[in-house]
Design a protein that fits this description.
nine-stranded mixed beta sheet
Length: 292
């Protein structure tokens, strides 16, 4: 059975609006993707770490309750699970404050078995953090050697712009190692001065704006339907999950992907990604609804 492997940070998101807490959800970019994938019925493994505390236990239980394999979730003994406050503005877009308790010395990731045509989803600062770079490289090397499809979400925020000169080589390496790369317009502005990266298959998103696809000579634009949003937290992460879900459920192999996909196949992939993202935006959670 093909599976999705999501690697990334774990945080407990406390959602705030008008100075009041609304909800508390386990989160993190690839974590959110893993939950959406698990809820969609895809066999999913999450690679990451939590603190050795009650919040960490809550996170691991939450993953299992949503169909995600936690055998590669490492506990950092003596440390607490990371926390974020997500403040929603008048448009229900989120602005974050993070509180971290991480060990100075990081142990190796617990890596799952990876098989041909599995889909690895990774991205955000976690994918380029200097303290984790060696571990991330080992995961990418294992995925590439196994013949997995590698999907990278650049997800580079302005809060890390001051470190761009240090982080850019890792971003560039991740792009070169990946079969599909996604970035928002904001990511492109922050990481590349608005330019698109040099890669064979690229998806650009722009919030409520249109989605651009480039696959070799194939170029396509997809409009985004207007919807009433409750929260945009996890919208991009659920989009990523939709792509991974479609690759598996549409039976797309890495060989077929590298050879160039038919426009109808891309329509199905982007359509599922849009549906996942829209479903997330209509929810107070960071993922698609459990029975969507």
């Amino acid at each position: 059975m093909r599976k999705a492997i999501c690697c990334g940070e774990v945080v407990l998101d406390i959602l705030m609006k008008d100075g009041n807490p609304l909800s508390a959800n386990p989160g993190g970019s690839s974590f959110n993707s893993a939950v959406s994938l698990g809820r969609s019925g895809v066999h999913t493994v999450f690679v990451g770490e939590t603190g050795d505390d009650e919040a960490g236990a809550l996170v691991r239980d939450f993953l299992r309750d949503n169909g995600v394999d936690t055998s590669c979730v490492k506990r950092n003994a003596g440390h607490k699970t990371n926390l974020s406050l997500a403040f929603l503005d008048e448009h229900n877009d989120a602005h974050y404050s993070f509180y971290r308790d991480e060990p100075a010395e990081r142990d190796d990731f617990l890596l799952p078995d990876i098989n041909p045509d599995d889909v690895l989803v990774f991205g955000s600062y976690f994918a380029v953090a200097p303290a984790l770079r060696g571990q991330m490289m080992r995961l990418l090397e294992k995925a590439r050697a196994a013949g997995a499809i590698i999907y990278y979400d650049v997800n580079f925020r302005s809060s890390h712009a001051r470190d761009l000169s240090v982080l850019r080589p890792s971003i560039t390496h991740n792009i070169a190692d990946s079969d599909i790369v996604r970035a928002s317009r904001e990511d492109l502005d922050n990481a590349f001065g608005g330019m698109e990266p040099d890669c064979p298959r690229f998806i650009r998103t722009d919030g409520p704006g249109s989605i651009s696809l480039r696959d070799g000579l194939l170029k396509a634009e997809y409009p985004v339907a207007k919807i009433e949003t409750v929260s945009t937290i996890g919208a991009g992460d659920s989009f990523n999950a939709g792509v991974a879900c479609a690759l598996i459920k549409e039976g797309v192999s890495r060989r077929e992907l590298l050879g160039g996909l038919d426009r109808k196949v891309w329509d199905a992939i982007i359509g599922r990604a849009q549906a996942f993202s829209a479903a997330c935006c209509r929810s107070m959670e960071n993922y698609i609804p459990k029975y969507s």
